[in-house]
Amino acid sequence: MLSKWYQHIEFAYPWVLGFLLLLPVLIFEYYGRRKKMQSAMLVTTTHFLDDVSSYRIYFRHVPFWFRCLAIFCLIIALAGPRTRFTEQQTEGEGIDIVMCFDISGSMTEKDFDPNRLEAAKEVGIQFVNGRPGDRIGIVIFSNQSFTLCPVTIDHNAVVSQINNIHSGYLQDEGTAIGSGLATSVDRLRHSAAKTKIVILLTDGVDFGGVIPPDIAKDMAKLYNIRVYTIGIGSEREIDEVVNTPMGPVSQKKKLEYNEGLLQSLAKETHGQYFHATDKGALQKIYASIDQLEKSKIKTTTFPRFTDQFFWPLLAGLIFLFLEMVLRLSVFRKFP
After folding, report:
1. Helix crossing, 62-78 with 310-328: angle to 10°?
2. What is the pLDDT of residue 168?
């Protein structure tokens, strides 16, 4: 524990630590002087005396070691131990972004590794970490939509909420793209940012929900919100293992994908449509969006310090107090 504490510590006055070299001198002088000490009265033999050993004899050096520990701790405290961390101050114009994730059952298809949703989460987190000056929110949808994280500059909270996303989070099955987009627009419509965008990630098969995609699209246009749509998946066939009374059986399954809807949503809101067929393509798409939507942010980094002298100072005073108590009580000398 002490070594872990020391690894994160620096000293405001490191030259004070040079006084620690006095401790070996003090120890050498103490034991040298003890060897030269003689009794006040010389006797020729002590055989006639009973055993005079006691705890005072065995622990007679304890007050001295308490004093050494007190000096050590006080020197450490005087050196000004402190922890250093950097703080960033951002100035300029950021972008408000809502990332809208489809979490319907179709997003668990395994044409991505390990599946569509998990791949989308992983790449989404990379995107969030690359936008330090922007406010970002999270919306999820299946048959209904839900704001998982409001638009915030706290990216740790955003990443945490993305990690919590899983298929079935919203129990009703379906893919209500219109509801998901409408909720995302609602998160941004009162924003004062000059640039507002929604990144809508889905397989594009819309059914269910109470708000049609065309209505959600008109809402985005009304509030000058650009929609970047990412179609994830393909219309190819995959092998799927199905449990039957005769045991597991492998059969062909055609994956559904509606490209036209996503193209329309992007084009009419002055965004762009992208098609991701694997995780690598998804990463390139987010990189493209990152280049298209630039924040005008100036970041200033400066160091901050937190003083850590209290605990060594307290320890030093405790050791000093114990040394004085022992010398004035248990190890008190009488003339």
Report:
1. 160
2. 77
Q: Which of 275, 282, 255, 284 is nearest to 122 (CA)?
A: 282
Full DSSP string of 242-306:
EEETTEEEEEEEEPP--HHHHHHHHHHTT--EEEESSHHHHHHHHHHHHHHS--EEEEEEEEEEE
Q: How far apart are CA 20 and CA 217, in angstroms?
A: 72
pLDDT at 101: 95
Mean pLDDT score across all residues of the chain: 82
Instruction: Give the separation between CA 306 and CA 81, rounded to whole angstroms.
Output: 9
Paired tokens of 33: 């002087």
CATH 3.40.50.410 in the chain, residue ranges: 95-294
The alpha carbon of residue 115 and the mean position of all alpha carbons in its chain are separated, in whole angstroms, by 25
Question: Residue 45 gets which letter from DSSP?
Answer: -
Separation between Cα atoms, residue 202 and residue 120, nearest integer Å:
9
pTM for the model stands at 0.60
Angle value at C-alpha 15, between 9 and 17, nearest 5 degrees: 65
Q: 3-class SS at 105?
A: helix
β-bridge mates for residue 94, sequence order: none
Domain 95-294 has CATH 3.90.230.10: no
Q: Which two tokens stand for residue 18?
A: 């040079």
Question: Rounded distance, CA 49 to CA 261, Å?
Answer: 106
239 and 299 in contact (C-beta within 8 Å)? no
Question: With a cut of 50, which residues of the chain have pLDDT below it?
Answer: none
Sign of the alpha-carbon dihedral angle for 327, 329, 332, 335: positive
pLDDT digits (tens, 9 = 90+) for 134-178: 899 999 998 889 999 999 988 999 999 999 998 877 777 778 899
